[in-house]
Amino acid sequence: MEAVNSGTADGLYWEMHDGPAGATSVLLSAGLGGSAAFWAPQMDALTERFRVILYDHRGTGRSDRSLKPGHSVAAMAEDMVAVLDATDTARAHIVGHAAGGNAGLQLALDHPERLDKLVVVNGWSRPDPHVARCFAARIRLLEAFGPTAYVEAQAVFLYPPDWISENDALVKTQEHHHIQTFPRTDVMLARIGALLAFDIDDRLGEIPHPVLVASSADDMLVPPLLSRRLAEGLPSATLDVVPWGGHAFTATVSGAFNARLVAFLNGDG
C-alpha cells in the first residue's frame, strides 16, 4: 500500500492515494488502534473508484505520540478537518470504524459542510454498559500488566473464535507489530476515556447526511443494538448487519463489506 503523496498536518501523519481523474474523495478513519494500516483490506476496492485519504490518529502510529489537553471525540473530529485541509479536500465521504465512526458523527455536527456521505462501522451515539464493561477489563489489563497483556487479549474482542483458531499465525504476527508500536499508556487511557464520554444521542436528528450504519451480529465489543439505535435516530440512515465477522468484520469478511461500502458511496444502494 504505497502512498501517492504523504505528509504531516498539525502533528498528524496522512497519506493520499489517487483514484481515477476527478474521483470523489474518501477519508478513512480507524478505530481505537488508530493506524491507517487498518484499512488495507479496503484499499484495492476503493482506489479503483475514489481518491483515498488515510491518516494515523493523534497519539498513534506515525503521528505525534502525545495528545493535546482535554482530548475528546470532538478533538478527533477537528483532526479530520486538519487532514482534509492538508490534502486540499473541501468535502469527502468519511468512513470510520468505532472511534473513527464516532468522530465522523461529531464532524457531521461540527462541520457539516465538509462531509458528503458517512459510513459508521460499529459506532454508537451514547455510552453503553456492555461497551463500558469491555473497556473496563481492557483498562485493568493495561494498568496491571502492561501493553503486552492488553494486546494479547485484543483478538478476543476483535474476531470470532473460529477465525482466531484458523488464523493463529496471522494473529501472532499482528500482536507482535502492535506491541512494538503501542501508544503510551496515558495516551491509550485518554483515548478510551474520550470514547466512553461520547454522547450525541439527543443530537442525531441534526445530521441530515446519508449514513451507512454497518455492524456485525456477533460483535463482542460493540453490540449491534447500538448500531440499530444509531440508525433509528438518524434522519437518513441505512442499517447493514452482517451475520458473522466480529468487531473487525472489515477484515474477516472484507469482500462482503467492500461490496456494500462501494455500492453505498456510489449511490447504488
Report on this model:
- This protein is α/β, with parallel strands linked by helices and 269 residues long.
- It has a single domain, classed as Rossmann fold (3-Layer(aba) Sandwich).
- Helix content is 45%, strand content 17%.
- The protein has an eight-stranded mixed sheet with strand order 1-2-4-3-5-6-7-8, with helices on both faces.
- Helix 4 runs antiparallel to helix 8.
- The radius of gyration is 17 Å and the shape is globular.
Order of helices and strands: EEEHEHEHEHHHHHEHEHH
Number of distinct helices:
11
What is the residue-mean pLDDT, rounded to a whole number? 97
Q: What global shape is seen?
A: globular
Could you tell me the number of beta strands?
A: 8
Task: Give a short synopsis of this structure.
The chain is α/β, with parallel strands linked by helices and 269 residues long. It has helices at residues 40-47, 73-86, 99-110, 129-145, 147-158, 161-166, 168-180, 185-197, 224-233, 249-252, 254-266, and strands spanning 5-9, 12-17, 25-29, 51-55, 92-97, 115-121, 211-216, 237-242. It has a single domain (5-266), classed as Rossmann fold.
What topology does this entry show?
Layout: E1 5-9, E2 12-17, E3 25-29, H1 40-47, E4 51-55, H2 73-86, E5 92-97, H3 99-110, E6 115-121, H4 129-145, H5 147-158, H6 161-166, H7 168-180, H8 185-197, E7 211-216, H9 224-233, E8 237-242, H10 249-252, H11 254-266
Parallel strand pairs: 3-4, 3-5, 5-6, 6-7, 7-8
Antiparallel strand pairs: 1-2, 2-4
Helix pairs in contact: 1-11, 2-3, 4-5, 4-8, 5-7
List keywords for this structure.
single chain; about 270 residues; Rossmann fold; 11 helices; 8 strands
